[in-house]
User: What shape does this take?
Amino acid sequence: MKLLRQLEGYRLTTAEILYHMPDHPGVLQSFIWQDYDLAPDYPVLHRFLDFWTREIEGKLHSVRVGSARLITAGEMRMARGLFTLQ
Assistant: This one.
């Protein structure tokens, strides 16, 4: 499943989420989120942040996003033949 998603353009995406502690709003806490997502729109991350805003008490301060394509065109090559060992 992961390989298929990577071939469809999904990238391993990491987000550092800074949020205000509910009991101490002046204190920021860090949360690291990671999943496969489509750059540059990041729909999976947006769904997670929407969930966070609705369900979690800690108010978001900032989100820093990084992503990397795991399979590049240089790593994909057509096979020149099929060999069977018996």
